Task: structure prediction
Amino acid sequence: MDSFKEECAVVGVYNCQNAAKLAYYSLFSMQHRGQEASGISSSDGKKIKTIKNHGLVTSVFDEENLKKLSGYAAVGHNRYSTAGEDSMLDAQPVFARYDLGEMSVVHNGNLTNAQELRKKLIENGAIFQSFMDTEILIHLIAKSEKKCLQDRIIDAILQVQGAYSLVFLSRSKMFVIRDANGFRPFSLGKIQNDDGSVGYIVASESCAFDLVNAQYVRDVQPGEMLIFEANKPPQSLQIMSPTPHPCIFEYVYFARPDSKVFGRTVYDVRKKMGIELAREKSIDADIVIPVPDSGVAAALGYSQESKIPFELGIIRNHYIGRTFIEPTQTMRELKVRLKLNPIRELIEGKKVIVIDDSIVRGTTSRQIVRILRGAGAKEVHMCISSPPTISPCYYGVDTPNKEDLISARMSVEQICEYIEADSLVYLSLQGLRQSLECGQSDSFCQACFDGKYVV
Amino acid sequence: MDSFKEECAVVGVYNCQNAAKLAYYSLFSMQHRGQEASGISSSDGKKIKTIKNHGLVTSVFDEENLKKLSGYAAVGHNRYSTAGEDSMLDAQPVFARYDLGEMSVVHNGNLTNAQELRKKLIENGAIFQSFMDTEILIHLIAKSEKKCLQDRIIDAILQVQGAYSLVFLSRSKMFVIRDANGFRPFSLGKIQNDDGSVGYIVASESCAFDLVNAQYVRDVQPGEMLIFEANKPPQSLQIMSPTPHPCIFEYVYFARPDSKVFGRTVYDVRKKMGIELAREKSIDADIVIPVPDSGVAAALGYSQESKIPFELGIIRNHYIGRTFIEPTQTMRELKVRLKLNPIRELIEGKKVIVIDDSIVRGTTSRQIVRILRGAGAKEVHMCISSPPTISPCYYGVDTPNKEDLISARMSVEQICEYIEADSLVYLSLQGLRQSLECGQSDSFCQACFDGKYVV
Amino acid sequence: MDSFKEECAVVGVYNCQNAAKLAYYSLFSMQHRGQEASGISSSDGKKIKTIKNHGLVTSVFDEENLKKLSGYAAVGHNRYSTAGEDSMLDAQPVFARYDLGEMSVVHNGNLTNAQELRKKLIENGAIFQSFMDTEILIHLIAKSEKKCLQDRIIDAILQVQGAYSLVFLSRSKMFVIRDANGFRPFSLGKIQNDDGSVGYIVASESCAFDLVNAQYVRDVQPGEMLIFEANKPPQSLQIMSPTPHPCIFEYVYFARPDSKVFGRTVYDVRKKMGIELAREKSIDADIVIPVPDSGVAAALGYSQESKIPFELGIIRNHYIGRTFIEPTQTMRELKVRLKLNPIRELIEGKKVIVIDDSIVRGTTSRQIVRILRGAGAKEVHMCISSPPTISPCYYGVDTPNKEDLISARMSVEQICEYIEADSLVYLSLQGLRQSLECGQSDSFCQACFDGKYVV
Amino acid sequence: MDSFKEECAVVGVYNCQNAAKLAYYSLFSMQHRGQEASGISSSDGKKIKTIKNHGLVTSVFDEENLKKLSGYAAVGHNRYSTAGEDSMLDAQPVFARYDLGEMSVVHNGNLTNAQELRKKLIENGAIFQSFMDTEILIHLIAKSEKKCLQDRIIDAILQVQGAYSLVFLSRSKMFVIRDANGFRPFSLGKIQNDDGSVGYIVASESCAFDLVNAQYVRDVQPGEMLIFEANKPPQSLQIMSPTPHPCIFEYVYFARPDSKVFGRTVYDVRKKMGIELAREKSIDADIVIPVPDSGVAAALGYSQESKIPFELGIIRNHYIGRTFIEPTQTMRELKVRLKLNPIRELIEGKKVIVIDDSIVRGTTSRQIVRILRGAGAKEVHMCISSPPTISPCYYGVDTPNKEDLISARMSVEQICEYIEADSLVYLSLQGLRQSLECGQSDSFCQACFDGKYVV
Result:
C-alpha cells in the first residue's frame, strides 16, 4: 500500500420507490472509497433484508438479487480492504435483531474509544461477531434503557468517540448521525419522486447524488441527528455541540473532484492547492504534468499560476483487474507502468514538474521519477500538493504505521534523494489552509500533517 | 421441496496438522446433509480464523484460502438452505469474541425453546445478527457468570432444549456436546498422526471418518460433553442425564448408507426395513426396483425376502447442476425425468414394485408412477419403507408444514389414487422398529410418524 | 486415466420447434460420453448459428444463449477431453461455409485413414484449423464435383474409413450417416409435436430420447444415410454395403444402462455378463459387491446366478467437482476414496467378490482392493465382467497406448499380484459373446480384447 | 453504438523468452482497441499452441494457461465485438495446418475484395469456418504453388486489397506485413534480452512497447514485409510499391495518446487539432472542458490558443463493468451519466465550450449537453476536433451505416438543434490536416470525412 485509503462509503435512502436501487447507484458512484465488499439493507416497513458480499458493487449485485431488496428505505456500504482480518465477517450493513425489533447499520469512520467500549461490553456479557466498530454501537443501543430507538441511538452515540458517519435503518425509520467533529464528509440530498412526493438521500460524498438525480441540500452537521419517518418531514436534532474538525485530507486525495465536501467543491480546492504550491515554490521548468488522476486539478492550478504549460504527460490504463498476472523480475517497475505510461515525445529533453497529491512510502514516487527519466526527462521536479504526511490517522482512514511513513523518518532532502528526483517540494500546511480560503478552516483536522490529534 | 431435509452437518478436528484440511474433506463427505453454505474456523492457539460462504464445499474452499486456516484444531459446517431468510447471514461457523477470548461454534440441530430464550436475551440487551439458534448459545455463554469456558458452556447448555450436536472451538480447546435426547447422530473418531501422536475428530456422520483415515471410536453420548485440550487425553463429562431419543428418520433417509448411526450401519437397517416391508405386505409382482439412490438398500431387502428379483430399473443422472434450464410446459414431468430415467425393457409388461423411502407431498411419487407406466409397466405398486409422515419435525430437520404432508390429510387409499399407483403400502411403525432389532429402540424419536414429541 | 473413454456423443433434431432446446436436453442425457466441451448449431432455414465452448452442457448453455439458437433443426455434440491438444480449437459442431452454402457437422468416431486423407488434402491446398477428423469430411464435401450436398456427402463418405456417426446440418436439411461397420451406436427416434406434426431425432445413445419424449424407432443402419428435409418423410439410402462390426465395449462400459445399443438393452447385457462370469468362475465367497456405478448390473447377474448375496458394499460420492483440492501424500489413496467409500460392516470378516467392468492400468483396481482390505475383508476376489483389454482402439475410443494396458504386458496371475487381490478372474471372450446371445454377434468388433482390427 | 470502433489490435514477438507473456502485456496495453475476445499463439520451434476466448485480456489469460504457451515467438490479438455474428467462431489468432506445416495468423484490418476472393476460393472447394477475412489469406497461402511460406505469403498478399496489419507465425519464423496503403498503424520495436541478445516486437500501437521495455524502432512501412528467423537479423522486403494512405481517424479517436502513430505522437496531434479549432472558430466563453478521456488533448490545445481557461469539468467513472444494472425509465439519461458526471460549481452560470473528438449518431452529444445544462451552464458550445463524419469506413473500422451517421443526413445547424447546443462547430478538414503539419499528409485516408475511398 502506497497511499492513504478511505475506509468506506455509506448511503441512506428514504421514501423512494426502489430505494435499494438508488442505494446501488449511489454506492457505484462512491466505489473509489472502498472496493473490497459491498452491501445493502432495505426495509418495506415490515422486514429488513440484507445482501452483502465481497467484491465491487457491480459484482455483488445483479438485477435478480436487487429485486429481493424491496422497500422504500435502504442503507448501503462500500468497504475498503483491511488486510489481515477475516474480511468475510466484516462486510456491512450490520444487521441485528434486538428488543425493539430489527435494525441495520452502516458506518463510515473509526471509533477511538472502541477498544475500551468493547472491553466493557464484553465484560458485561456482550459478544462480538466481527472486527467492526459498528457492532459496539448496536450493543450500546440494545442495552440502553431508553424506550425508543431514537433515544437509544442518542444514548449510545454519547458514549462513543471518534469519527462516524452513521445511518441506522429500522423497519420504518431511518436515523442519520455525524460525529460532533464532523471528521468525515456526509451530505444530505433531496429526490423528487415521480408521484410528486419527496425522497431523501444521505451519502458520504455528494457525487452519489448526481447519478440518482438528487439535489444537494446541505451537509449533515457535526453533532446532528436527522430522523426520517413516514409522512413527516425530516427532523433535525443537534444532539452534540458541534466542534467541527473536518478531515483536510479529503481535499488532498480521497474525495472525487466532482463532490462537494464540507461546503467546498473538491476540484476547486485542489486547483487552489496547485496555485498555492506554485506561489510558494517557483521552479524553472518546461512543463507541468500530473500523476493521473489524483494530481490533475492541482497541476492545472500550478500551471495556471506559474504559466508553465500543463500537459497530460502520463496516460493511465483503466483496464487493470484483479486477475492481472504479475510481472517477473526481468520487467522491473512494470507494476507502476501497468497503470501509468509516459508520453515520451512530451517529456524528452524537458525539465518536468510532476504533481502528485502526497507521498506515503515513496516507492511509487520513485518509480514515477524513473519512468519519466526513462522517457527522456532532463530534470524531474516532484511537487506534492500537500505537506509531508508524518502521522497516521485514527479517524476512519487506513494509513501505514508511523514508521512506514517516509516523511516521518526522512527529511525532505533525504526523500528527494530516495525518490531520485532533481528536486522535491511540498505545499506548506499554511498554503494548504489558504487553498481552503476561510477563517473557520482553523478547525480542520490535520493530524496526518502536524500530529495534533483533536480527540 | 418434496422430501425431508437434514439441516446441516458439523465436524470438529483436534490435534492434527492441517486440521482445516481434514475438516474440509469431512465436510465434503457430508455434502449430502447441506449444500447451501459451508464454512470452517481453525485455531493455531493464538487466533481463530474463519472462512465461510455460499455454495458447495468444493466451491467455497480452494488451495489458497484453506492455507489461511492454519492450526491444529478446526470446526466446520455444511448448511442446508432455509428458504425465505437472508441466507448470507446464516452461514456457520459463528465466530464471536467475548470476555474470555474468542470462540467459533458449529451446530447441527434446532433449539425448541429458541424463541423464548431469544426473547429473554433480547430483553436483556442482547443483539442477534442472524436467524441461527447458535447465537443464543453464544449469548448464554458470554453472559454466564462461571469463570471458564467449560463451565459456561455447561451453564448455557442446561438452559436450552431441543436437538444439538455442537462443537465449540476456543483458541486452545475444543468442546463437543450432544443433547441429552441425542436426537441427531454424532460420532467420535481417532486419527493416527504421522508423528505418532493421536488426533481426534467428531462428525455428524461417521462417513466423514473414512476419507481422513480416522477410526470410528464410539458415538458421542446423549448428554455428554467431550473436552479436548493440548497434551491431555480427551475428557468426558456426563453433563446431563441421558434420555436418548435418536431420530429414527436418519435411518429412513438422511444418513449415507456407509455411515454408522446410533450404533447401527445405515445400509443394514435400510435393508431390514425392506425385509420387514416384504413380510408385512406380500405383493404379486415380477420385479422390485428402487427409486435411486435412497430406496436401493430397502429394495434389496424386499427382494431378498420376497424372492421377487431386484433390478435397477431406474437410472439416475448425476450431472444436474444449478444452472439447468427448466423445461417448458410442453415437456411435462421432465423435471423428475431429468434425474430419473426408466429402463423400458426391464419394465415393459411387468408388474413392478417400486421402493421409496417416504412420501412427503406426493408429487414426485406421482411422477415416478407415470414414468414407469410410460415405460410400459403393467402394474405399479409403490412400497414405502417407512410409515406415513404425518407430523413436522422440530429437532433439526426441515419438513413442510403439516398441511403440506400428504399423509396428514389423506388416507393411504386417497394417496394411492393421487399418485396413480395400483397399490400403495407403507412399512408399519412396528415394522420399522423391528428393523432396528433392539429393546432400547423404544426410545427413538418417531414424532414425524406418530406425532408424539419427546420435548 | 484409468479407463477407456468414449470420445463423444452426437445428436440431430429435425422438424421440431426449439430444436436447439431438444438438442440441449439430449446432450445432457449423454453427458457421460464427453465432459470437456459442448456445442450446438441450429438452423432456421436461412442461417446456421453455432454456440460451443468448454465445459459441461449445463455450463456452456443457459436460457439466454439457447434462445439465440432458433430454428427447427439442430445438431449437437459433447466432446471428451483429448489431452495434449489445443482443446479450445477442437469443440464441435464444426461450421463451414462452402460453395453450396453453409453446413455444420458433428461426428462421433475416428477415421482410420485420416492421416493420409489429411495429407492428400493438404497437398492439394486445404488448410486444417483443428485436430478433428471432421474437418477432413468437410473438405472432401467442399471439393466434390457433385452438384448437391447429398451427393457430395456420399462422395466424401466413400473416401473415408473408420468409425463415424455423423450428422450434417445445412440451412434446410439434415443428413445422418453411420459407417458401414456401424462401430458406434446411433439410433433414430420420433417426436410427436404439439401441432400434430412429427419430428425426428438421432442420437449416439437412445437414453437421449427419453428426456425429450421421443420414441425409439430403430438404429441407423450400418452404411445407411438418412435424409431429412421439409415437408417430406425421412428418406433412407443404403450408400454402403453393411458389414456390421458394432463395438462390443459399448456394452462393457460406455453406454448408459438405460440405453438400447445395437438392438439390446445395455443393462440386460451387463447382467448377463455377470451371469456368464458366475458360470465360468465359481468362487467361494460371502457377498458380491459392484464397483459403482459401472459394475452394478454385472454384479446383480453374478449374484443371481451364483446365489451369493448382492450388496452395495461401496458407496459413491457424486459431489466431486473440478476444483477439488488434491490430498497430500499423508493421505494416500485418498483420490479413489474421494469417490468410493466402503461400508465396513458389510465387508468386515467377509470373503468379498468385487465386480468391475474392466481393468485398464490396474492402479484403481489396486486401490479398491486396498480399500476393501482396509474395511476388514477377509478375502478380495476381483471379477471382471469382460476379457483382458490387450489392444488399443482406433474406432472412436480413447484408450491408453498398448504398453500402458496392464493386460498387454502381464499375465492374469501377475495382474492379480499387482492389484493385491486374492484372486482375479475375467469373463472369457466367448462368455462375453454368449451374453449377447445371438448368431450375428459374430460380427462384433472386439479388437480391444483380441487385437483383430476389422479395418 | 455511438462512436467509431477500431476492430482490433495485433502483436508479434520474436526471439524473446516467454514471448507469450510479452504478447500478453502488449495486448493489455492495447485493450482499448478491442474488448470482445483475446488470443495468443506461441511457438517453441516444434509446435504452435493457441489459447483464445471471449473477454478481456486479463480474463482470458491467467498464470496457468499462459505457461502452456511456451516458446520464443508469439502472436496475439484483441478483437472488437462485431454484433450479429457468431462471436465464438471469430476469435483470433487463426491457426491452420497446411502443406508446409503449421501457421497462426493475426490480422488488424479489413479486406475490401474479401467477398469476391472468398467466392472464388469457395468455388474452388475451400471451406470457411468463420466470418474473418483472415481465413482468405490462409487459403491463398495454402493454395499457392510457391515452395516456401515466405513466397506464398507474398503470393497471397498480392491478391488481396484493403487494410491489413498482419503477423504470420510459423513453427520457426515470423512474417509481418502491412498493406501498401498503410491504412492501420503498425510499429516495430526492439527488446534487449537479459542474455544480451535482441528480440523484436511489432504491434498495432506503440504504447504496447512501453510496458515490455521495448524501444520504438520505426513503423512497418506500407507494402513492407519483415521476416524474422532464428540467428538472423530481421530482413525487410518491399513487396509492394507503397502508396501510403494512413487512417487520419487514428489521430482523432482510436489511438492512445501515448502512442506514436504514423510517425507522430497522438497526444501532440490532438492538441494541435484543438489549436486549429480555436483558430478557425472563435467563441466567447468562460471555460473549455473536454469530454473525457477522448477530448482532453484537443481541449488543452483549444484553451492554450484561445486563452479561455481549461477545466476538467466532467469526471469519468472508470468502474463500469458488463454487469451493470440498467437504469429504468425514471432515471433518464442515467446511462451517459454513469460514466460522466459534471462538476456543478465549475459549470454553473458559465458559458461552456465542450470539446469532443467526433459526433457519430448524436445521442451521446445531446445527453452531454443536457448534463451540462442540468449543472447550470448558461451556454453550451459543442466543439468537435474533427470534421463531420459522413461516410462509413471499409478499412478495418467498425462504423454505423451511412444513414445512421447524423452528419450524413443533417446540416451542422440541424445537428446543433438536435443536440440542443447553443452552437456547434467542427474542425475543417483543412484544419485537421494542418494539425498534422506535413506535406506528405496529402496522402491520408480521410474517406470518413470526404467520402473519397482510396481503394
Summary: Chain B is about 30% helix and 25% strand. Chain B has a mean pLDDT of 91.
